[in-house]
Amino acid sequence: MIWIDEEKLKQLREQAPEHLKLPVIERAVAFDVETPNGKSERMCSIGITRIENNRITGSVEYRINPEQDFDWFCVQIHGITQEEAELEPIFPEVWPMIRKDLENGLVLAHNARFDLNVLKKTLKAYDLDWHPVRFADTVEIARSLLGRTVMNHKLGTLCDYYSIPLDAHQAGSDSFGCAAVYLKLLEEYGPLNRFERDFSFG
Questions:
Q1: Which residues of the chain register pLDDT less than 70?
Q2: Fewest Cβ atoms nearer than 10 Å: which of 15, 114, 117, 196?
Q3: Residue 155 lies in a domain
Q4: 5 lies in a domain?
């Protein structure tokens, strides 16, 4: 095994021919939410995984009291009960930390508009606001680039395809899986800027 330090690695990347250079994502943040019921307007957990310079540098999960009743079906999916959630802080108490984690970078999610709309509705419920964000959806990217190479484009299927560990429907693990899938697609297919979109919380 040959050890190459970060500075040497940077030099090698810069010296590579243009068509072989791996695009560098300075900062991106993958997130995933789990909801208490089918209304999908509050969250009971949110997972956030940071990417810096094409490496996953941290992952966190916040449990939240959504102040809503839980559907049996949702509890079966993510395993969070209403009794457990009622012991957690409400969203405005954790929003400053969540906002700090999500700031200043491309936002990633798997089936992104679902997660973004849950966040939007939650912000509105508590009379909170946030600036527009630039986002990319790993479902859309995988569907376009992998096509029928995989059976479907669910996060679990993609994680199996790329040998990424996943504890499905656990927000922290799902956000990690989303981030890792994005990096695999970036490495395999090059720049993914064409899949970026804008989302407004107004």
A1: 1-21
A2: 15
A3: yes
A4: no
Residue 9 included in any domain: no
Specify if 107 maps to a domain: yes
Q: Which amino acid is at 162?
A: Y
What gap in Å lies between CA 120 and CA 128, rounded to an integer?
Answer: 9
CA dihedral for 117, 182, 98, 65, sign (positive or negative):
positive
| Total domains, the chain | 1
Sheet containing strand 197-199, edge to edge, reads: 55-63, 45-52, 27-34, 106-109, 133-137, 197-199
Question: If we measure between CA atoms, which residue out of 123, 158, 160 comes closest to residue 30?
Answer: 158
Query: CA separation (Å) from 180 to 79, 81, 105, 187, 200?
Result: 24, 28, 16, 11, 25
- Whole domain around residue 35: which residue ranges? 24-199
The pLDDT value given to residue 195: 98
CATH number at 122 reads 3.30.420.10
Quote the pLDDT of residue 13: 55
Residues linked to residue 108 through DSSP beta bridges, in sequence order? 30, 136
Record the pTM.
0.89
- Specify the pLDDT at position 189: 93
Q: CA 173 to CA 60: how far, in whole Å?
A: 9
